[in-house]
Amino acid sequence: FSILKDEKIDGILLAGDVFDRAVPPIEAIELWDSIITRLAMDYRVPLFVVSGNHDGAERLEVGRSMLSQSGIHIWGSPHHALQPFEFEGADGKVAICPMPFSESRRIGDALGFATPSLETGLNLHNYDQMYQAWSNHLRNQVPKGMRSIAISHAFVMGGDVGGSERTLSIGGSEQVSPQVFKDFHYTALGHLHGPQRMGADYIRYSGSPLKYSF
Question: Could you report the per-residue pLDDT of 133-182, keeping only the tens digit for each?
């Protein structure tokens, strides 16, 4: 909170794993409630949140429509993360493109790919292909000339595993390429612990507060 005040932060990006389990303990829920209340009521700093693999996506989204009216924006299901959110910052508009953690098949379903298609050539069990299709879908809706920020919870290829991360799927098939995020001006990543740059300075995992200008 002192950083918010001292640095005059426009908004906060939280790339998943608000909690460490799908059904969190009461103490964790109360802490989360106190934080978002303080952000919305006392500091009036917008918060942009996507769910992680530890979170219960549907539980995290409870009250999302009402909370968004107070500047607390939460995306848990890919079905609710199909459009960029245009945020008016101190230096102009930015398109926030949410990509919460989800199983690849749920992403395909949200995008309208019900079955594997010879026409699209997409494999609904391939995380890289589904996240790329999702990225394209969001990026294509960003108005020309507007800056864009992606918030995603994913295992990006080449990242260093800290040891405490929970596996997303069996056999490493959950990994996605950094190329998925190359067309955004900045990408805030969640899942792997500790600050890391993934193929470019503007694609980052961050385990600590980060101020970034673009």
Answer: 999 999 999 999 999 999 999 988 876 666 555 555 444 568 899 999 99
Contact between 144 and 136 under an 8 Å Cβ cutoff? The reply is: no
Count CA within 13 A, CB hemisphere, residue 149.
Answer: 24
Among 16, 6, 3, 7, which Cα is nearest to 155's?
Answer: 16
DSSP H helices, 12-161, are: 26-37, 57-60, 64-68, 104-111, 127-139
pTM over 0.90: no
Cα dihedral value 6, 12, 14, 15, nearest 10 = -120
DSSP class of residue 115 equals S
**H helical segments located in 38-126:** 57-60, 64-68, 104-111
In the chain, % helix, strand, coil (3-state, to 5) comes to 30, 20, 50
Q: What backbone torsions phi and psi does residue 132 show, to the nearest 5 degrees?
A: -65, -45
Residues 6+ apart with CB under 8 A from 155: 127, 165, 168, 174, 175, 176, 191, 192
The residues pairing with 98 across neighbouring beta strands, listed in sequence order, are 151
How remote is the C-alpha of 158 from its chain's centroid?
A: 19
Query: In this structure, are residues 55 and 16 in contact, taking their beta carbons and an 8 Å threshold?
Result: yes
Amino acid at 74: I
Instruction: Kindly state the tokens that stand for 189.
Output: 């990543």
